[in-house]
Amino acid sequence: MSVTGSQPTRYAPTAKWLHWIIAACILFVIPAGIVMGRLPEGALQNQLFDLHRSFGVLIFALAVWRVYVRQSRGAPPPYPELSRLERIASTAVHHTLYILIIVMPILGWLMTSAYRVDVSVFGLFTLPHLMPQNDKTYEVLSTIHKMGGILMTLLVLAHIAGALKHTIIDRNDLIWRMLPQRRSD
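The chain above was modelled as a monomer; its predicted structure follows.
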């Protein structure tokens, strides 16, 4: 709900920009997460791990900001042309993605703390460890983080597929709700 108490008719410009910046970061961290574990140990693997962690922290910060914007500015009602099933699927995907963009970086931070790896954020500062070193805890958190990454990948693909369906097959204007600029705005 917005500050004024009424539901907005479109997403706030800040929400739109945050959506696309977070999307770009996610489209980096997912493939980076897949590739970095397959690389041989060395400088390239270390750099990819550092970038993955740094972008994870950035995603978390942007996600918190995005939740704040959504809470303070509100969001438009569900798109009226969605079927009941599409509305349920859309809501489930969006809410789960919101949870994952907040929880996954925290899991990553906890995991690296348990492994006793420093999280240097783009070389600007280092996050403190959240827990003592513990190999068993690391293994559990690593498995959960990987499973979350698989779930996020599937949901991102579903989200993109839904946007393409509405744009190409249905030929409706749903995508304009989240594009940063529209001629009539």
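The chain has a mean pLDDT of 92.
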